[in-house]
Amino acid sequence: MVKVKEIAAAVGVSPSVVSAVLNGSRHVRMSEATRAQVLAKIEELGYTANFAARSLRTSRSGVLAVVAPKLSNPVFAPMFDGIHDAAEESGYVIMLAEATRLVDGSRMLERILGHGQVDGTILRPSSGIDSAGVRSVFRGQAPIVVLDEVPDLAQPWLAIDDVAAGRVATEHLLERGHTRIGYLGGWFHAHATFQPLEGFRHNNLRRLDGYQAALSAAGIEPRTDYVIETDYTAHAGREAVKQLTALRDRPTAIVVNNATTSIGLVGGAIAAGLRVPDDLAVIAIHDIDMLSEVSPAISAVRMPMYELGYTGTKLAAKAIDGETFESYVIKDPPPHILHRETT
Questions:
Q1: Of 55, 77, 161, 330, which one has the greatest count of Cβ atoms within 10 A?
Q2: What's the whole-number mean pLDDT along residues 211-222?
Q3: Which CATH class for the 4-48 domain?
Q4: CA 111, CA 104: separation in Å to the nearest integer?
């Protein structure tokens, strides 16, 4: 097995430089040319890190726990890509857990955290965050980074700009001459099955804030009957068409708070005899591959989900090393309009 000392000797640098490159650390000063030489030699010699030896030496497992609401949600795919890329660069492996499977008495995550099998946790919250399994994260000793805006939480967090997403989606419809604009998708009030984490205001409410702010800025009074609560399924989008068409002055355009529901809404509108976008324009917050493949292709707001996962993981690695950081909302890149056939 190739050792760090052998790589260092081959490149003509100290072992600490090689270790810094392997761990993605920027604390050891070196030129980018040296970093590139070390990476090339690592590849050439086929070096594989001995994680077992490292864990014994550092009392760390080399594992990060990632907890997300629903792993199969395609919206999270770029976030997971960012998490995996950053974890690999930082010398960690990922253990995925689905938050919806940690409710109703599940103790799996609590057991893992309690036995020190992970060095840190990355949590993407959901409406049902108040479960014994998910809350065990906050009782653990390992550092945690929350990938959503939780201002009242003592834990550090990183978030995308959901308020801006709701605003730019609405502005896109306003620019196309619409004044009767609705908002669809997500729950706005507490449900019996959910008790949100203290200080956690779900991203759907922040998108709604952006939607209402854009209307108000345009001199349009937001209408409560234009705001429809649903779950996050395509079926909910199809069902929402019945509510929309029952309105006396129905909206001519809709901001949908998620990609999946927008697919059902467009399909339901067409089935009901509405022309899209002539009778009903639709734009979704978040983009997934399917939105560009369906007919008509659905306009969307692309959010920096890759950056959320990548930067969040890098911050988690820093927290494990004892560093601190200020919680913040990612502003660059900003939410970006993908103008397709439904607008």
A1: 161
A2: 96
A3: mainly alpha
A4: 15
